[in-house]
Amino acid sequence: MIRALLFLIVLLWPFATTAQEFSGLARLDVAQSQVRDAEDGLDVTLYLSQPVPFRVFTLDDPRRLVMDFREVDWRGASRAGLLNADNATDLRFGAFRPGWSRLVIDLAGPTLIETAGMEVDETDGTAVVRVRLSRADPDRFAAAAGAPPDPDWDIHATDRPSLVAPPDGGDDDLVVVIDPGHGGIDPGAVRGGIKEADIILQFSIELEEALARAGGIRPVLTRRADIFVPLEERMTIARAAGADVLLSLHADALDEEVTRGASVYTLTGEASDGASARMAERHDRGDLLSGLDLSGQDDTVATVLMDLARLETGPQSLRLADQVVTALDDAGVAMNSRPRRTAPLAVLTAPDFASVLIEIGFLSNPQDREVIGSPAGRARIIGGIVQGVQRWDAERRARAPLLRQ
């Protein structure tokens, strides 16, 4: 009851204290904003250029503080500049869904929200958000954790341009769903001034254009902006589009700089090697990093989906991966020493369409970074992917009469 009341006060407080219209982005005052240790917990102080509706709650396993805003411009902010605390181990921020921003703070231990509120300066209209957390025992923290029910939030959660039905194409067109990895609060790898979420989105839009020009293919993107799209919603978008193929695109980073080249992953119960296992762990942490409440998910469902994917679309996905690897090599794209890999990747578990994950290169490698960062380099990779998809589709159509007999 206390937690629900606190949430209600926090969400509605700005409307009760000021008649100001909330329009545009609230800019974060980076110099004054801080996450600091308190005597028995944590203090979060954010200075904003204007008041905005917000909500705050905690999540368990792992322990996190989540703050949602409508909406904050984080430009100029950094982890190093904001985080000055031993009671918090990490933080991240960014766009979460259209019109909403999110800040997620990883807590070093169980700390409950003690107070939360916003103060508005009547003179200049600026606002200060303050959240105070105090130490608590693990059982109390776990009992209080979870996003509080909010009908308004649920309404906004379904308000996504990406869920609008794609334009009609030919009935016989191959529907290729392009899934740019990461986005918004989950930037992915960052190396040499390049953010994975940004460069992969640019690459995906260019791939969309190339596939559309190829003829007989209807490409669909799961995101067109730097926003976070949960895994479940990516799958919803693909199914709503009538996907025949899903291409999940990434440009990873490793601790070493020597590993380079493109590689293509298909689904398996266990990773084919240590590098694939580490990659799978990083990619499948997106929903967790974003501050989604995953406590209600059932691992049994994921296992069943994986089994179905092996039975129904596994062979198609394997052939697609082989065709893409061959076509990338034919196009002169630098390939990884092991270009065909397998891993237990959640994004590849759909039982109703073929799917592969393509690492177009490694941002941690200077040569790959140069290729991925240049239009000519991206065009070569895109040409290989288009050719691979076309070859796979031709083979699929040739095999169809045999499968119907």
What's this entry about, in short?
The protein is of the alpha/beta class and 405 residues long. 36% of the residues lie in helices and 29% in strands. The chain has two domains: 2-157, Sandwich (Immunoglobulin-like), CATH 2.60.40; 161-404, Zn-dependent exopeptidases (Aminopeptidase).
Write a structural description.
There is one protein chain. The chain has 405 residues and is α/β, with parallel strands linked by helices. It has two domains: 2-157, Immunoglobulin-like (Sandwich); 161-404, Aminopeptidase, CATH 3.40.630. It contains twelve helices and 19 strands. The strands form five sheets. Strands 15-12-16-19-17-18 form a six-stranded mixed beta sheet, sandwiched between helices. A five-stranded mixed beta sheet has the order 7-2-3-11-10. A four-stranded antiparallel beta sheet has the order 4-5-9-8. The longest helix has 30 residues, at 375-404. The radius of gyration is 23 Å and the shape is elongated. Mean pLDDT is 84; it is low at 1-23, 155-159 and 161-166.
Index terms:
single chain, alpha/beta, Immunoglobulin-like, Aminopeptidase, 6-stranded mixed sheet, 5-stranded mixed sheet
What order do the helices and strands come in, and which of them pair?
Layout: H1 2-17, E1 26-27, E2 34-38, E3 41-48, E4 54-59, E5 64-69, E6 72-73, H2 79-82, E7 83-84, E8 88-97, E9 100-107, E10 111-120, E11 127-135, H3 138-144, H4 151-157, E12 174-180, E13 190-191, E14 194-195, H5 196-214, E15 217-221, H6 231-240, E16 245-252, E17 262-267, H7 274-283, H8 286-289, H9 299-312, H10 314-330, E18 335-343, E19 354-362, H11 366-372, H12 375-404
Parallel strand pairs: 1-6, 2-7, 12-15, 12-16, 16-19, 17-18
Antiparallel strand pairs: 2-3, 3-11, 4-5, 5-9, 8-9, 10-11, 13-14, 17-19
Helix pairs in contact: 5-12, 10-12
